[in-house]
Design goal:
The chain has 332 residues and is α+β, with helices and mostly antiparallel strands. The chain has 2 domains: 88 residues, Phosphorylase Kinase, domain 1; 189 residues, Transferase(Phosphotransferase), domain 1, CATH 1.10.510. It is 35% helix and 12% strand. The strands form 3 sheets. The chain has a 5-stranded antiparallel beta sheet with strand order 1-2-3-5-4, sandwiched between helices. It has a 3-stranded antiparallel beta sheet with strand order 6-8-9. It has a two-stranded antiparallel ribbon with strand order 7-10. Strand 4 and strand 5 form a beta hairpin. Helix 4 crosses helix 8, helix 5 runs antiparallel to helix 6 and helix 5 packs across helix 9. The protein is globular, with a radius of gyration of 20 Å.
Length: 332
């Protein structure tokens, strides 16, 4: 991810968003780290610009005002722009991303933060989704409005088989696992929201309180434990869920207790029958989407162990990030 402060075009897009919102476009701008968007802050506002042609921020502009106050989502000031450069301007909430604070927090404050996060997440999972929320290509290719929740996943498997450097035998093994695990998530329907990208980059901490859950661009209605997919990935491999400048400051050892704490504070989230199998299917759906979006440039053995094709192989072999979690955590 490039640093937006080094990109004058990114700053120009942010100033244009302020102008379109009817705000002062000459105020000082502070670049903020983000994994997916260009993000800038003024004293009173946050500007996010999405450079991908999917208008994810439009969904968030619709969703934000319907979220309960306990979530802490900021007031939506303006949405606009065009495909490939849509923007969202919201009020600025006190606090810093929890991912940036976590390395220096005491064990007591870390434990308190997870308790507060569990309470906000539970409240979110009790919130009905707006009926006018547009569909989106979600990180997990699973849907509740098709004949089978894995139909999109099976289409992606066929697509993956035709990609260079993809082992067809591995894809056959993944397909067999998909068919075997599909009954564990049926029926895949819910009228309540999930966040969709639950990482500490999307949680604000002011030193003693979680002030907000942010970045709801992947939010949709789905079974609550879908949120465990990204969340548990972050717990196992947190350095891949922070901005580039925080990569070397993020220690996986600091995250090891988090799944246990969350299970203590939100036990219902971990009480779904055959949850480990459900999570394996969620992981496949996430990694397969990643594989089709970013095909391998070389054979799997020449790629990083965390490349999507190697993550899929690890899931098939029982060596995935999920298997790094102790069975006593309540996840299985």
């Amino acid at each position: 991810m490039s640093e937006p402060r080094r990109n004058p075009m990114a700053m120009a897009r942010a100033r244009h968003a302020l102008l379109q919102a009817g705000l002062d476009s000459t105020v000082p701008l502070e670049a903020a780290s983000s994994v997916t968007n260009e993000v800038w802050m003024t004293q009173h506002h946050v500007i996010r610009v999405n450079r991908r042609p999917n208008q994810r921020l439009r969904r968030e502009a619709i969703l934000g005002p319907s979220l309960p106050a306990e979530i802490g989502y900021p007031m939506v000031v303006s949405y606009g722009g065009q495909m490939g450069a849509d923007f969202l301007v919201v009020g600025r909430i006190p606090g810093q991303p929890l991912a940036h604070c976590w390395p220096s927090m005491t064990p007591e404050k870390r434990r308190s933060a997870i308790s507060q996060l569990a309470a906000k997440l539970k409240r979110l999972h009790q919130t009905p989704g707006p009926t006018n929320l547009p569909d989106i290509d979600t990180p997990q290719m699973l849907r509740g409005d098709t004949l089978s929740p894995v139909m999109s996943l099976l289409v992606a498997l066929d697509q993956a088989r035709s990609l260079p450097h993809v082992d067809r035998g591995l894809m056959d093994d993944v397909e067999q696992m998909v068919y075997a695990l599909t009954p564990t998530i049926e029926p895949f329907d819910s009228k309540y929201l999930v966040h969709g990208d639950l990482t500490f980059e999307n949680v604000l901490w002011d030193g003693s309180h979680l002030t907000a859950l942010l970045d709801f661009e992947w939010a949709r209605t789905a079974p609550a434990d879908v949120d465990l997919d990204v969340f548990l990935r972050m717990c196992c491999l947190p350095q891949f869920h922070v901005g580039d400048k925080w990569f070397d400051r993020t220690d996986p050892d600091d995250y090891r207790d988090i799944p246990w704490w969350m299970a203590e504070d939100y036990p219902e989230l971990f009480a779904v029958p055959r949850q480990y199998d459900r999570l394996r299917l969620y992981a496949i759906a996430y990694d397969l989407r990643d594989l089709t979006m970013f095909p391998p440039a070389a054979p799997a053995h020449q790629l990083n162990e965390h490349h999507s094709i190697n993550r899929l192989r690890a899931t098939v072999l029982g060596h995935s990030h999920l298997d790094l979690l102790d069975a006593n955590s309540g996840v299985a």
